[in-house]
Specification:
Layout (H helix, E strand, L loop, with lengths): L13 H11 L1 H20 L12 H12 L3 H14 L2 H13 L17 H36 L6 E6 L2 E7 H20 L4 E2 L9 H6 L5 H11 L3 E2 L10 H30 L2 E3 L18 H23 L10 H5 L3 H19 L2 E3 L1 H9 L6 H11 L4 H9 L6 H10 L4 H9 L9 H9 L1
Parallel strand pairs: 3-4
Antiparallel strand pairs: 1-2, 5-6
Helix pairs in contact: 1-2, 1-6, 1-13, 2-3, 2-5, 2-6, 4-5, 6-7, 6-13, 7-10, 7-19, 10-11, 10-13, 11-13, 15-16
């Protein structure tokens, strides 16, 4: 960790965000550019319609693939050194590759590096690969870990009664497992959409029309060739663009991540509130300090940290989703500058998930507190009583229960006396008399188990 880092991603949170560095750092961008340039060169050598590029030998292809596999920070530094002269980052990659291939058996094909490509042809494919691999190899596994950790935590409490609170006030009981299962259910929908996300790419020249390509090889089926190449990278081909790939898929991805993060924000705040209410207890960690002046405190800092990082991530995602889908005419560079921050949004999301997981592993459930809350709020049974009164056709059931219970503490004895006074069928009376706040949970247990398994 560098104490002089401007961004906490490279300072305070460097260890947490390191797994993403392989995919969304400046080094990663340069490496993916090198990858795309080399794979394009290999593709050209394998296309019979591109008659002036000879087929490469197995050894030559191995040499090219080794440039990708062995690409190092030192190599990326050389590219940046070249960029200081070219003042163009993609051209610097082209020159780097030509230098590396100079003197090899591929010297005769040097000018086919970056053939018929605009910078955006290389960049859009690189960005798509960065996002795809970063999501699939880092963020999606972490998202899945969060969801399943909460599911595991919630499973033993599928039938554990919990006093609900609507508008912060005591309300009809649920179960702790069911309330946590709500988050699991919501997240799994977003996880499914993230796993199905398409990552698009294009390779069609300066304005998307294969102008230069057709001049060089008028008989080649360039759209089909470009599609084969893009799909060979594991991406989805976008057949119709301006100079830039339209970035709509990025907006889709960032919107889905924003929804996932908003559910995490909701979860963080609910857990924070449950801790304040005493539903959850936090395990103490030896050596930790909760407050600089109040020694007794165990603050819910992990969920607060998660909440803060969700906010930063979503601010970036919302901006990028709106900005990247808009470009003046066939091209402007504002997207190129904005897109460099996509990794920042992913990193803050990773930090938020990591913090929530850390907090979860410190939680335990105070079942005695849950039972006490329920026993102190018998008035929540006003709902089933007035509902049964309605069924029986008794007059003004809501108003009668409101007069009895609103803003008041009701004892079990007082409620039992009220039920006994009602002109209800014996079966209904017996069912209501047997109810307690802890048994008035509807099908919460069933719902929890159906989601949690």
């Amino acid at each position: 960790m560098s104490l002089t880092s401007i961004s906490p991603l490279d300072g305070r949170y460097a260890a947490q965000t390191r797994p993403l560095a392989e995919f969304v750092s400046e080094f990663a961008l340069i490496k993916y550019r090198v990858t795309v340039e080399i794979r394009w060169l290999i593709q050209l050598s394998q296309e019979p319609e591109i008659t002036d590029v000879r087929a490469f030998t197995t050894a030559e292809i191995t040499l090219l693939e080794r440039l990708i596999a062995s690409f190092s920070v030192e190599d990326a530094t050389l590219v940046k050194d070249i960029e200081r002269t070219t003042n163009h980052d993609v051209k610097a990659v082209e020159y780097f590759l030509k230098e590396r291939l100079q003197g090899s058996s591929l010297t005769d094909v040097l000018e086919w590096v970056h053939f018929a490509c605009t910078s955006e042809d290389i960049n859009n494919l690189s960005h798509a690969l960065m996002l795809k691999n970063g999501m699939e190899q880092v963020l999606l596994p972490k998202i899945h870990e969060l969801i399943e950790t909460i599911a595991d935590f919630a499973r033993p409490y599928a039938a554990t009664p919990l006093l609900s609170r609507t508008h912060g006030q005591p309300a009809s009981p649920s179960t702790l497992g069911k309330e946590l299962a709500v988050f699991v259910h919501r997240w799994r929908r977003q996880e499914k959409q993230l796993a199905a996300q398409e990552y698009l790419g294009k390779l069609n020249g300066a304005v998307g029309c294969f102008n230069a390509h057709l001049c060089a090889y008028p008989n080649a089926d360039w759209p089909a060739l470009a599609q084969r190449f893009v799909e060979s990278l594991g991406l989805v081909y976008n057949p119709l663009t301006t100079q830039i790939e339209s970035h709509d898929y990025m907006a889709e991805l960032f919107h889905t991540l924003t929804r996932f993060n908003n559910i995490l924000l909701d979860f963080d705040r609910d857990v924070w509130t449950y801790i304040a209410l005493g539903v959850f207890l936090q395990k103490t960690v030896k050596g930790e300090v909760g407050s600089s002046t109040m020694p007794h405190k165990v603050n819910p800092i992990d969920f607060e940290n998660s909440e803060a990082n969700v906010g930063i991530a979503n601010a970036l995602f919302e901006h990028l989703a709106s900005k990247l889908a808009v470009s003046r005419l066939q091209r402007d560079l504002s997207d190129s500058s904005a897109i460099r921050s996509m990794g920042t949004g992913l990193a803050h999301t990773l930090i938020a998930i990591t913090a929530a997981l850390r907090g979860l592993r410190k939680l335990s459930v105070d079942e005695a507190r849950l039972a006490a809350d329920l026993n102190a709020n018998w008035e929540v049974l006003a709902e089933p009583i007035q509902t049964v009164m309605r069924k029986a056709g008794l007059p003004n059931p809501y108003e009668r229960l409101k007069e009895l219970t609103r803003g008041a503490r009701i004892t079990p004895e007082g409620l039992a006396a009220f039920v006994e006074s009602l002109e209800l069928p014996d079966e209904d009376k017996q069912r209501l008399a047997a109810l307690t706040p802890g048994t008035y949970i509807g099908v919460a247990e069933k719902l929890a188990k159906e989601t949690l398994g």
